[in-house]
Amino acid sequence: MTWEATEISIPHDEAFKKLLETFFQEFIELFFPELDAMLDYSETRFLMQELLVDIVGEEARELDLLLETRYKGLDGYILIHLEPQSYKDHEFRERMFIYFSRLFERYRKDHKLIIPIAIFTSDEVREEQDTLEMSIPEHNILRFQFLKVELRKQNWRRFIDSDNAVAAALLAKMGYTTREAREVRREFLRMFMKLRARLDQGRLALIMSVADLYFKPDRAQDEEILKELIDHYPEEEEAIMELMPAWKRWGYEEGIAEGIEKGKEEGQAEIIRKLLLHGFSPEAVSKAVELPLDEIKKLM
């Protein structure tokens, strides 16, 4: 099993959106258990990306994710709008209300309920506002409140015994101290090993890609952790070793650079073999060491 999918850098927003699309049920189960109990996931479908227009500013706005599913309590279809937010925006509450208003205007005849959910992914720990209110004395004109999850305010230790794919992918984005960073790193790999038993390679690669966005590379520490895991799970040694080229793309930045620097005729073949052995595709190695693909394949 190789990890070619992780050799390509995936932009944060794209990777995060793909995570929510692939593991929508797991996301709801993890952060909104009461809502989870009310949804019938067997009839869930993602809608085409909606384009909404802000009448005031004539500004085109796109929803991040919009899906339709069945709500048990109403015995009907509802809409769920998921909106990741990575930076501070004082107008975010208003934007969420505008989205909700446009969705309500367009879908109110077909859907009995619209649930807006914001996922705050900032590195800062702060209280994100989730309510927009308007009132006059003795009379409330409007109170709009969306659901939210603030990842940095989640205690990572609550999730390490979970077999939830979203918990693993986002573990490094949750709240922990600098002293706990190594332990978080180790627990992520342990959780990932558990997921291998029930997920296909494509979904595992997605989890690894998202996690890689948040972990800071430390090769020496990574090697120590992998050795610890091998000692603890000797029967999984081969599978654990397969993680090495994927986690922080070991060898892709360092090994290939070494291959270029030491790429003399005498040692180049050995370096190429090591790169191939670490899971890099012949095409990636060919491009890195500037040799024809046919010559690379002869060394496989």
Radius of gyration: 23 Å
User: Averaged pLDDT, please?
Assistant: 81
Measured as a percent range, the helix fraction is 40-55%
Proportion of residues in β-strands: 15-25%
Summarize the structure.
With 300 residues, this protein is of the alpha/beta class. The chain has 13 helices and nine strands. Strands 1-4-5-6-9 form a five-stranded mixed β-sheet, with helices on both faces.
Main attributes?
single chain, 300 residues, alpha/beta, two-stranded antiparallel sheet, 19% strand, disordered N terminus
Write the layout of secondary structure elements.
Layout: H1 12-22, H2 24-31, H3 33-36, E1 39-46, E2 51-54, E3 59-62, E4 65-71, E5 76-85, H4 92-107, E6 114-120, E7 131-136, E8 139-145, E9 147-150, H5 165-170, H6 181-195, H7 201-212, H8 219-232, H9 237-241, H10 255-261, H11 265-277, H12 282-289, H13 293-298
Helix pairs in contact: 1-7, 6-8, 10-11
